[in-house]
Design brief:
With 407 residues, the chain is an all-alpha fold. It contains 18 helices and no strands. The longest helix is centred in the last third of the chain and has 35 residues.
């Protein structure tokens, strides 16, 4: 439907603006004289600080106000700050511009989860949320592709400015198309107009919420971290130029990501209706398979072999989105879904996004005296254990999920 398509497009810009820094990192590092640790801070902590901190109050507002206006304003704000990144003259200017992107994107996701839950019935939500999550691989791929091609043709500053202004132009189109639906209108028992008191406290008291959130965060440390640093890895370890990296990684991210996201949503809807625990067991298995695939991929020296080996874990890395987000939506009544989603995103992104990109950059800096340009390869190896932690936490959450489930 048209509404879902425009939501996907907005989410595409969300991740395009978020992930474009990865493909531009090499050019920015040379131009501004930065270290890997500084790049990691800009890619993670600068964005995550306000993105996570403002997400909960904005979601509280979205559970009571007009979600489409909130998302329209958020899209305008994060796109505008993306354009301003192209004017930065040093580390701190770029750091604060990335913080501005995080401020805008704080209002771009949790309200969308709630809108989708009110546009689609229960038996279609995992697939609808998975389809919405196509914005992640599509946006990431386009960020890599457009960012690299524009930077190669003009410079890295133009890449930020062009993609940022495109998002600003999308904002009024978004508001024109996406209308505010009745809350809980697709549920068996429609929701009341406002959330019941104490809803947040009841959510935070559920062990499954914390296990799910920390499990997703553990996987995101590796997912966000590897995604941010792969362009630099291919430059340093495989000697690929900017345009070649953009085409290679963009196509890999798009194909693998879309397949993985859709497979997770399909499996979640197929298996989760009879057994809600499947919403968590499916991603747990996916992460355990992804770990050895990533390890072998980083060792590859042939580009065709590397493409295939990276394609598999790239897809498996995103299988969790539809099933896990659906599980979180069912930990609370319909009128509290924006807030529940924001609480989940707070934990997931503060740890996963805030720590992930910095972790790999810091390890790379620490290993550079010993391994030189190959330090990033070993930094990636060091982070793959987060997938084991994630799978274990999802498995524990599955044991508690039925008791905490809200139909």
């Amino acid at each position: 439907m048209l509404v879902l398509a425009i939501l996907i497009l907005a989410y595409t810009f969300n991740f395009l603006d978020r992930q474009i820094l990865g493909i531009l990192a090499g050019s920015i590092k040379k131009d501004l004289g930065l270290t890997d640790s500084q790049l990691g801070l800009m890619g993670g902590l600068a964005f995550a600080l306000f993105y996570t901190g403002l997400g909960i109050p904005i979601a509280w507002w979205a559970d009571r106000g007009n979600r489409t206006w909130i998302m329209t304003g958020a899209l305008t704000l994060w796109s505008g700050f993306t354009a301003l990144c192209g004017l930065a003259g040093g580390f701190w200017q770029l750091f604060f511009c990335r913080m501005g992107v995080g401020v805008g994107e704080a209002g771009g996701v949790a309200p969308a989860y709630s809108l989708i839950a009110d546009y689609f019935p229960k038996h279609q939500r995992a697939r609808a949320l998975a389809a919405y999550s196509f914005g992640i691989p599509i946006g990431s791929a386009l960020g890599i592709l457009f960012g690299g091609l524009i930077a190669a043709s003009i410079d890295w500053r133009a890449a930020f400015i062009i993609v940022g202004l495109a998002g600003v132009l999308l904002a009024p189109v978004f508001k024109l198309i996406v209308k505010e639906p009745p809350r809980g209108g697709m549920d068996e028992a429609p929701a009341v107009a406002a959330p019941a008191a104490g809803g947040l406290g009841r959510l935070l008291a559920k062990p499954s919420f914390w296990l799910i959130s920390l499990g997703a965060a553990a996987s995101s440390v590796c997912g966000y971290g590897v995604a941010f640093w792969l362009p630099s890895f291919f430059e340093r370890s495989l000697g690929m130029g900017l345009v070649d990296r953009s085409l290679f990684l963009g196509s890999m991210t798009l194909v693998g990501g879309v397949i993985g996201v859709w497979a997770g949503g399909w499996l979640g809807d197929r298996l989760g209706q009879a057994r809600p625990q499947a919403y968590l067991l499916v991603p747990a298995v996916a992460f355990l398979i992804a770990l050895p695939c990533f390890f072998m991929a980083v060792q590859a020296t042939s580009l065709p072999i590397a493409f295939v080996l990276f394609l598999i874990p790239t897809g498996l890395n995103l299988v969790w989105l539809g099933p896990v987000i659906t599980a979180v939506q069912h930990l609370v009544p319909a009128a509290q879904r924006s807030t529940a989603s924001a609480c989940f995103l707070f934990v997931n992104n503060l740890i996963g996004l805030g720590l992930g990109t910095w972790f790999f950059g810091a390890v790379s800096d620490a290993l550079t005296p010993r391994f030189g340009t190959e330090a990033l390869r070993y930094a990636i190896y060091s982070g793959l254990g987060f997938y084991v932690v994630s799978a274990a936490l999802f498995g524990l959450a599955a044991l508690r999920l039925r008791r905490d489930w809200v139909a």
